[in-house]
Write a structure and sequence with these properties.
Blueprint (H helix, E strand, L loop, with lengths): L1 H5 L2 H21 L7 E3 L2 E2 L15 E2 L2 E3 L7 E2 L14 H10 L5 H10 L4 H14 L4 H6 L14 H6 L6 H12 L5 H5 L1
Antiparallel strand pairs: 1-4, 2-3, 4-5
Helix pairs in contact: 3-5
């Protein structure tokens, strides 16, 4: 179910559209000093995306204040990029969930299919259970769920918490929206 989503370039295009909307909102809000925000986007070289992604899929939206002396940077949350991680955020979210399959052979096929080492996926599992579980983003968000989310089961338990959302694509987008402030000024503001 998740594997087909990771190979769907239309899903990645949807994430790009959501990122563009968030970028427009940040730019419209302007800098806290009152200055206008000018585009300062930059290219990323994310790994793990499906074939057929457009050139815009690798652009990280960011802005810089136009006021001389301020020049503060504003980088909006992203559904495509998870902080400074090299792989697309959706892989960082879903591969640790999918790797908990029935056999080591399945895990190895997944890692090979997405060009991710088993060590990297293990590191992502530690990230979810240790770094993310203690992050400001999670501390602020975890109380919004009706039932407690098991931190030892992250990220799978996070996706399960969105179980009332019927289709897989919308459930993954909801989880990505929740974790998107990682690595942005929003994350540091909590």
């Amino acid at each position: 179910m998740y594997q087909s989503l990771l190979r769907d370039s239309r899903f990645f295009d949807l994430l790009l559209k959501f990122d563009e909307e968030q970028a427009r909102e940040v730019q419209r809000a302007g800098c806290p000093c009152g200055g206008a925000l000018h585009s300062a986007r930059y290219a990323r070289k994310p790994r793990g995306g499906p074939a057929g992604l457009g050139a815009g899929s690798t652009v990280r939206f960011s802005f810089c204040c136009a006021t001389e002396g301020c020049r503060r940077r504003a980088t909006p949350p992203s559904l495509r990029f998870l902080g400074r991680k090299v792989f697309f955020g959706v892989l960082v979210l879903l591969l640790p969930v999918m790797r908990d399959g029935p056999t080591p052979e399945r895990r190895d096929r997944l890692c090979e299919g997405f060009s991710v080492s088993v060590r990297t996926v293990r590191r992502w599992c530690r990230f979810w259970r240790e770094a993310f579980a203690t992050s400001r983003v999670w501390q602020a968000a975890r109380g919004h769920f009706a039932a407690p989310v098991r931190e030892g089961g992250l990220p799978g338990s996070l996706l399960d918490a969105f179980g009332e959302i019927g289709d897989t694509e919308s459930r993954v987008v909801a989880a990505l929206r929740l974790v998107s402030p990682i690595g942005t000024r929003v994350d540091r503001a909590f």
